[in-house]
Amino acid sequence: MTLITQILATLLHACAVPSAGGDCPKGADHFQTRGDIRGACAVTFDGDAFIVCSPEALPPQGAAEWSAPQLSRWTVKDGICNQIVAPLGFASGVDVSGDGTIAVADRAGVVLLIEPGGATRTRIGIGVLEAPSGVAWHGSNLVVSDSGLGAVLLLDRTGRELQRVGVGALRDPQGLDVAADGSLYVADRLANCLWHFPVTENGRLADTPRAIGERGTNPGQFNCPCDVALIERGAAGRCLVVADEMNHRVQVLGEDGAFVSFFGMHALFPRQGDGRIHYPRSVAVDAAGTMLAVAEPFEDRVQLFTLKPEENPPDAVGGYEFITSHFGSDVACAEDLLVLVDTESQGVALLDARTTPPIHMAIIGGLGAMSLRFTEVSAIAVEPKTARIWVADRGRGKLEVFDTVWDRSKPPVLDMFIPRLARSMDLARFTARMKAAGFAPLRVPAITDIAFDPNDASKVLLLDAANRAIIAADMRLQAGVLDRLPDSARMPEELAIAADGRTAVADPVAQRIYLRDGGASWTELEELGGIPFVRPAGVAFGADGSLVVSDAARDACIVGAPGVSARLVGERGELDEQFFEPRAICATPKGLIVVDRGNHRFQRFGDGFAWNLTGSMGRYYDQKRKGSPGAAPASTPQSRIEKGGES
User: Fold this and answer.
1) How many CB atoms lie within 10 A of CB 11?
2) What is the spatial distance between Cα 240 and Cα 181, in angstroms, rounded to a whole number?
3) What is the rounded CA–CA span in Å between residue 358 and residue 409?
């Protein structure tokens, strides 16, 4: 794998002939890293310092409860950090005006303004914004990208809407930056491009933007661009610096969108060290145009680079443990079929869950033998009894169902023809049918999870982040009923249904678990057994009826019941019963599986939520390794370990 990566890096640099980029930077040298900034997702420069958004934070030394300062200001020269306390739900974007006013986009539906000195804080955009994902100053006004609205809004300082642009064109607008002439550049993660909104003769932003870039891995192409920062060069034009998230790199383009260069090429491995770039989410360039800040929430850090006119040499990856899978945020199982999403390939892996370890049998999508490809898999599920696989493709607005056929009486083997497309359902048409039935206004669903009613085999349940609801639909999406979540819901991510009819929904932005018993009203849980939720990303019901919540900020799972004691299982790390950003949970014949996204793997827990397996594609441990919780210390000599205690 190392050789392949080296060849790929060399070929990309060989064919990447820079365009006439003038004095746009073509490379960057690592300057410093500010680590352990949990969930660092947005960054901006403020004079000789940078400000970073971090939706989660470590508890103070010795403190039992977690805090969430949201913002921190770091001086570049001496690394002094000052926390900026901000009453936010989930900070996602930040910018500083010329007079020192800080604007913070909050996915909970507001923009927070912090005046110089920090004494005055104003929340604007309430009732106007839905899911702000980026913010930038536009003179004395603000431009705010809103992924929920699929638009960019121009607001004055009171929150009054002055203009709305990009409706119908933008799909998932994220970070943005304003040019010296007032024009606007927006990164669109789902459309895999930048949008340029020029300024018209009357001083307004153009309603129709120009697209820059396309999906791909070649120079000048993007795979989930999340942010853009501008370097102004006067008469020489400007440079566009782009956080190309799923390509693990920063790209530099000329003003016309022509490719100049890229650097990063992280490729495969988590926590690979300084200078490597892994899932970059936000970029910022200082006023001098010489220093770049890159926020990487996956790595919990901000890296600083000094920009330079020379290209970086090819980045050959080597010397690290072989990575066989990049399991992402979703997992599903029914009976004997386990499915997981590989975020790098957008493929859905099929495994036989009856065995230990689960045996890989096929892949749907990115790496399969079928012509079908997914743009962005947002949810998967396995239908009970039939073992049909449901896949929600957010990028194409489709729900697709696959039959699975294999002889269960024989040992599992690799067979790419096990899955067969049974039907493809268009979510926009389903929305039109729902509207005609009286459910209006209604947006095209953004499906984040799929479940099946254990008491009604004719119904599929769709967790819908766009409408903040659960949709109960027939199996062909001909009709449905909308069941709205409480008003506090912001970004519901996972749905769990118990055999006794209980329903649970995890919402990491609202920092809540929504729980309902049968037809009763929703109960909003902010903690379980006295343990507060910080970023609850996954939820499931244990075989004993307990509630299991994966907390991506705590790097642990919370196991218990409302009003009863609970316990934390797991800790931050790379060994067994350790996590980096645990996400989705599902039940299998041999226990609950938790996706350990930051370690590109899954872990399985049996009776009493006791660990019994760590697995990726082709690498498994069913006995704890030294240094894992409950195992021998890492320093224990081999001779002192009982036979079978080390895998």
Assistant:
1) 11
2) 15
3) 16
d(CA 373, CA 346): 8
Condensed to tens digits (0 to 9), the pLDDT of residues 154-207 reads: 999 999 999 999 999 999 999 999 999 999 999 999 999 999 999 998 989 999
DSSP string, 528-575: ETTEE-SSEEEEEE-TTS-EEEEETTTTEEEEE-TTS-EEEE--BSSS
Three-class secondary structure assignment of 266-326: CCCCCCCCCCCCCCCCEEEECCCCCEEEEEECCCCEEEEEEEECCCCCCCCCCCCCCCCCC
**Sequence letter at residue 309:** P
- Tens of pLDDT, residue by residue over 470-514, are 999 999 999 999 999 999 999 999 999 998 889 999 999 999 999
DSSP-assigned beta bridge partners for residue 178: 184
Name the CA dihedral angle for 636, 640, 645, 647, rounded to a multiple of 10 degrees: 60
d(CA 244, CA 317): 19
Q: Which domains does the chain have, with CATH numbers?
A: 27-58+67-308 (2.120.10.30), 323-484 (2.130.10.10)
Supply the pTM of this predicted model: 0.87
Query: Which range is most confident: 1-5, 455-459, 506-510?
Result: 506-510
Q: SS in 3 state form for 449-488?
A: EEEECCCCCCEEEEEECCCCEEEEEECCCCCEEEEECCCC
Which candidate, 136, 180, 175, 172, places its Cα nearest to that of 154? 136
Please state the three-class secondary structure of 8-66 as a single string. HHHHHHHHCCCCCCCCCCCEEEEEEEEECCCCCCEEEEECCEEEEEECCCCCCCCCCCC
What is the rounded CA–CA span in Å between residue 508 and residue 496?
A: 15
Distance, CA of 210 to CA of 566 (rounded, Å): 53
Cα within 13 Å of Cα(111), Cβ side: 34
Residue 82 identity (one-letter amino acid): N
Residue length of the chain: 647
Phi-psi region at 7: left, alpha or beta (left = phi > 0; alpha = psi -120 to 50): alpha
